[in-house]
Amino acid sequence: MHKRMRWWRDYGWRGLALGSSTTLPLCTMNGTSSTPEPALGFDDVPFRGIVEQSLAGIYVVLDERFMYANDTFAAMFGYARDEFIGRRMVDCVTPDSALEVMQNYQRRISGEVQTIHYFTKGLRRDGKIVHLELHASRVACRGRPALAGVALDVTERVKAQEALRRSREKLRELARHSNHAREVERARLAREVHDVLGGMLTSAKFDLSRIVKRTTGEGQQDLHRIASGLVELMQETIDTARSISEEMRPISLDLLGLVAALRQALERFGTRHRLAVMVHAPESPLAIDPVVATQVFRIVQEAITNVARHAEATRVLLQIEDDAGALRLRLSDNGRGIDKTEPRRGAIGLFGMAERAREIGAILQVDPLPEGGTQVLLTLSRPSITTWAGGAGS
Q1: Are residues 231 and 130 in the same domain?
Q2: What distance in Å separates the CA atoms of residue 21 and residue 18, rounded to the nearest whole number?
Q3: What is the pLDDT of residues 244-289, one digit of tens each?
Q4: Is the pLDDT of residue 195 over 70?
Q5: Which stretch of DSSP H or E encloses residue 332?
Q6: Helix (H/G/I), strand (E/B), else coil: 393
Q7: Domain boundary among 230, 249, 268
Q8: Which of 189, 203, 236, 261 is most deeply packed, by most CB within 10 A?
Q9: Residue 18 and residue 147 share a domain
Q10: Which run of H or of E encompasses 199?
């Protein structure tokens, strides 16, 4: 269709007379000529059948009025062609589109641009809106500048795009709700594991310790050894329960804030994977919405998981910068880096990070570093830091 538009722009209008019953001077692409060219009656135009039967709307505007329109273009507005010709451009578009349409018209008539391609909203005879894709060029007609153009009715395409946008927004809203519900459940289970299960294990360890103390006599060596082993096993179980609880919902995130929680998470990560970890962050607590803090923590958590799985790094650095305009978190490693020309390792994790960032109005960038390794940069504007506008928590 674009090829058809270009053909009409470059060739078709040079020999088209305007009107089925009247003879108008030849329209040319090159402006008025010092020697008037002969006029053609519409019946003499060799491309009349193409113009009249075109699935695209074809039109000519002179002095801000439609001086020619084929049946297809007139039908886009709900008119017969004879009813449509002579109507003003501004009356055929929605009020909110009128200014843009007239500005584009003046730009071409004045010679500022020769052609222009844009989308606008037309107003049908019955008051309904028709979405149009327009491509028009400046021509000369009756010795004055005019526009000759091609129009496509893209209403169904726009409706499909809007339906797709709404569907995606619903999916994102569902994801927001799912993430929120998951965090609530994680927090509940973390409290259960930490407080209830942890308390029960601690009580059991205390009782076993009493047994150990009372089995030091003659003939009790085996029982003492068994009880001592159980105490050690119980302590390991308590440590595991605490670790699970911390992974599910960091207690420090609620008690000490985001920076402390991230620092502890990075330290545990470094110990577990034998990596050198550094955290550069403000000493003072960040004023940040709890929901935003949770999402930021999860993004960093996923980022360091990707480092462990794919980077083959030996060093990880987290930098947190807080200023009047934004909060920035940079997580960098000295690993193998990321190749943007190849399918990304950990793509699902990266997608989840991007969705979490989008939910809180943040910008996430993942790029290779010039010296090797990868940098994850998360930027939050100040309004989104302190006042979360999402719907998951409501």
Answers
A1: no
A2: 9
A3: 877 777 778 888 889 999 998 899 899 989 999 999 998 887 888 8
A4: yes
A5: strand 326-333
A6: coil
A7: 249
A8: 261
A9: yes
A10: helix 198-213
| Burial environment of residue 146 by CB neighbours within 10 A (0 to 12, 13 to 18, 19 or more) | buried
Tokens representing residue 273 in the block? 């994977």
CA distance 319 to 281: 6
Give the number of domains in the chain: 3
What whole-number distance in Å separates Cα of residue 87 and Cα of residue 92? 8
Number of DSSP helices (H) and strands (E) in the chain, helices first: 13, 10
Provide the mean pLDDT of the chain.
81
pLDDT tens profile 338-361: 876 665 555 777 888 998 898 888
Check residue 188 and give its pLDDT: 82
What crossing angle do the helices spanning 221-248 and 198-213 adopt, rounded to 10°?
Answer: 160
Q: What is the largest CA-CA distance in the chain?
A: 129
Higher pLDDT, 245 or 312: 312
pLDDT tens for 101-158 read 999 999 999 989 988 899 999 999 999 999 999 999 998 887 889 999 999 999 999 9
The answer to whether the beta carbons of residues 380 and 296 sit under 8 Å apart is: yes
Report how far residue 291's alpha carbon sits from residue 92's, in angstroms, rounded to the nearest whole number: 48
Question: Within 10 Å of residue 276's Cβ, how many Cβ atoms?
Answer: 11
- All residues at 6 or more sequence positions from 5 whose CB lies less than 8 Å from its CB, including other chains: 56, 135, 150
- The owner of tokens 């909203």 is 121
Which are the contacts of 11, defined by CB distance < 8 A and separation ≥ 6? none
Structure-block tokens of residue 98: 């009128």
Question: How far lies 185's CA from each of 181, 195, 251, in Å?
Answer: 6, 15, 14
